[in-house]
Amino acid sequence: MRLIEQKWSGNCLLVSITKPSTSRIELETSPPSSPAIKFAMARKLGFTFLLLAVASICEAAAIFNPISESHKSAAIELFSPADGSFSSLEEAFEALRTFEILGIDTKPDLKDSTCKSVVDILSSESSNSKDLYHALRVSSLLKCKINKEALTGVTSRLQGSVKDAKSLLDFYYSIGGLTLIKDQTSEVDVLLDDADGIFQSIKALSQSDGRWRYSSNNPDSSTYAAGVALETLSGIITLTSSELDGNLIEALKKDVVKLFENIDKYDDGANFFNDQHQGPVSATSSVVHGLTTFASASGTLNIPGDKILGLARFFLGIGIHGNSKDLYHQVDALACLDQNRALVPLILSLPASVLSFTSQDKLKVRVTTVLGSTSTTPPLSVKLMQVFTSGSKDASIINQELRFDPKEEVHTLDAFPAGVDVGKYIFAFEIVLSDPEHKKIYATGGRTKVPVYVTGAIKIDNAKIEILESDSVESQNKLDLSGKNDVALSANHLQKLRLSFQLTTPLQNPFNPHQALLKLRHESGVEHIFVVGNSREHFKITLDFLGLVEKLFYLSGKYDIELTVGDAAMENSFSQAHGHIDLDLPEVPEKATRPPPQAVDPYSRFGPMPEISHIFRPQETRPSQQLSYAFLGLVFVPFLAFLVGLSRLGANMKNFPTSTAPATFAILFHGGIAAVLVLYILLWLKLDLFTTLKTLGVLGMFLLFVGHRALSHLASTSSKV
C-alpha cells in the first residue's frame, strides 16, 4: 500500500484508490472545513442511523467516526475556564457534560472548586429552584458529597416550589431537581402528592400544533418550550407512586406527533425545529432531549424512523461550532439519540484516510451509532444494492452483500461490480437488520447513496497535428501527448491547422474529459483559446486562419502551441506545450481591432529597482589646525576689549539695589540677558531657527517685565537723589 496525493475539486475531496486495471476508485467527500457547505461531509454522504461507515479502502485505513478529535479540541478550547473556575454552575454542567460525552478527563482541582460551589448553593436558604437545579445537575456528574440533611431540605423546598409554580420554567426547575435527587439517592422521599393535577397544569400550556407556552399569561408558543415541557412531564411520570392516568399520556403522545408534523426539512433529509426566540440548534436539541426522556419514561413513541434519522443527520451535519452553547447542544443531543432505546439511529460513515487500492485491498464498511459505538448495534448485514452512473437515472441492480468480519466489526466488499469504468458513480448501500423486530428499535434510513469517482490512466492514441491547404495535407506531425514534443510549423492565412487525438478508458471505452482546450500564445503575450470538439470516436479541431485573422488581430509571427486535457477522473491529465507555428498574416487594415493591452504584473513594482550610480562631490580642503586656533583667539579679542572698556569707564556695582525686591528683579534681569546669550550659542550648535525664535519670544517678555521693574527702581532712586 502507498499513500497518494489528495485532490480537491470544488467542494469535493477525491480519495483515490487504485484498481488492478490501473484505474482508481475515489470516494467523494466534502472538505471538513469548507464554510460554503453548511452540512459538510455527513450530509453529502447521507448519514443513516446505524452509522454505516464506508470506511477505508485498505487494511490499515482508519474508520471515520462522527465525533472526532476536532470536537474534543474545540470543547477544551471553548469550555476551559480562564481563571480556574466556571462563571456559573449552568456553564459548569454544560462543560462537564460535554467532557463526559467526548471522553475528556476533568482536572481534580476543577472538581473540588466546583463541588464546593455546589455545596454552598444547596446549603444556602436564598437559593431559588433554578440555582438548586443546576447545582444538582453538576453534582450528578461530579458525585459531590452531600449529606442527607442537606438533600432533605432541598427536597422540601423544591416540593414547595412545585406547588407555587406559575410558569413552565418554574415546574421545569423544581421537578427536574427532584428527579435528580431521586437518581442520586433513595433515602429521601421525593414523590409528588398530586402528580395528575400537576401534569394537567403543565398540559394546559400546550398548543394545537404541538408547541407550548411558557405561562398562561404569555400567548406566544415555542418549540423550545415543547422540549422543556416533555422533559418536565417525563419527570412527573417518574416521581409518582402510582401510575398516571393513561389518557393523559396518550394525549401527550398525540402532541408529540403534531409537533413532528411541523418539522422543517432540508433536501438531504436532515430535520430540525426552528424557534422565533432560539436558534435551530438549541430548539432541536431541546426537543430531542425532551423526546428521548419522555420515551424512556412512557415507552415507545409513534414517530417515523426517518424523522428520528433526520434529527441525527442535522446534528451530524452542522460541523463543529465555535460557540460553547451550540457545541453542548449538539453533543448532548447526539448522546440522547445514542442512548435512546425507543428508536436508535444507525449511521453509515466514510473513510477517514486516503490510501491506494490494490487487488489485495478491500472496501470496508462499518455500522455504528451516532457516537461511533458498535457494541450496541444489533445483528445486521450491509448490501450494495445499486450503482448509478453520474448524470443518468438508470442504475445497475447489484444486490451484493458485503462480507462481515466479526473481529474488526467491518463489512467488506470483496470485489467491485463488473463494468465499472473510469467516471463518476453513485453506490447505494443498505443496512438490513437480521431480526425484523429490531425495525421498531433501530432507524437505518433506507439506502445510503455514496458518490464515487473511478479514476484511471486514460490511453491517448493517434495524436497528430497537420497543416492543410484546400483540404489537402501539406505537412503532418505525430505527437506523443504524454511526453515532450517540439514541432515547428509554418502557415499563411490561406491555410488551416488541424489537431486530432483519441482518448480511451482502461476498458476501451471512449472517454470524454471535462476540458480539452487548445491555446495559441503570440510572442507579444496575446493568447487565444479554442475548445477541442468531440465526435465521441475522437477529438478534433480545425483552425481556418482566413476566418481567424481578425480574432488574431492580424498579428504575424511565432505562436506557441499548448494543449490542455483534464478531468477529475483522469489520472494523466496534462497541460503542456507541443511546439510553435509561424503565421504569415495580411497587413493590418486601418480600422482593424487592436490587440488588448497586456496585463501588468501588480507585484512587479516590488521587484528590484535599477541601480543608481552617483559620485559625491569631493570634500573641500580645510585650513591647518594652527590657523584655526589663531582665528578662535581673534574671536575673543572684542570681548576682551569690552572688558577693558568697562574698567576704563569706571563700571562698578555701587548702584546695584540692596533691598530684597529690587535686587531680585535686577538679578533676574541680568540672568535673562545671560539666557539670551546661551540661546544664541545653542542656535549655533544645534537648535533650528523656529525653535530659537519661540524661545526668544518667551525670554523677551520675561526680560521686558523684570527689566522694567529694575530700571524703575533705579529711576526712582536717582530722582530722590
UniProtKB/TrEMBL annotation:
InterPro entries: Ribophorin_II_2nd, Ribophorin_II_3rd, Ribophorin_II_C, Ribophorin_II_N, Swp1
Primary location group: endoplasmic reticulum
Its membrane topology: Multi-pass membrane protein
Keyword Transmembrane: yes
Domain of life: Eukaryota
One Gene Ontology cellular component: oligosaccharyltransferase complex
Residues in Ribophorin II C-terminal domain copies: 616-716
Keyword vocabulary terms for this entry: Endoplasmic reticulum, Membrane, Signal, Transmembrane, Transmembrane helix
Pathway: Protein modification; protein glycosylation
Domain Ribophorin II second residue range list: 346-454
Annotated localization: Endoplasmic reticulum membrane
Parts of the chain that traverse the membrane: 45-64, 627-651, 663-683, 689-711
Residue ranges of every copy of the Ribophorin II N-terminal domain listed in the record: 67-337
Family membership noted in the UniProt record: Belongs to the SWP1 family.
Role according to the record: Subunit of the oligosaccharyl transferase (OST) complex that catalyzes the initial transfer of a defined glycan (Glc(3)Man(9)GlcNAc(2) in eukaryotes) from the lipid carrier dolichol-pyrophosphate to an asparagine residue within an Asn-X-Ser/Thr consensus motif in nascent polypeptide chains, the first step in protein N-glycosylation. N-glycosylation occurs cotranslationally and the complex associates with the Sec61 complex at the channel-forming translocon complex that mediates protein translocation across the endoplasmic reticulum (ER). All subunits are required for a maximal enzyme activity.
PANTHER family linked: DOLICHYL-DIPHOSPHOOLIGOSACCHARIDE--PROTEIN GLYCOSYLTRANSFERASE SUBUNIT 2 (PTHR12640:SF0), RIBOPHORIN II (PTHR12640)
Assembly with partners or alone: Component of the oligosaccharyltransferase (OST) complex.
Protein's UniProt name: Dolichyl-diphosphooligosaccharide--protein glycosyltransferase subunit 2
Taxonomic lineage from the root: Eukaryota, Viridiplantae, Streptophyta, Embryophyta, Tracheophyta
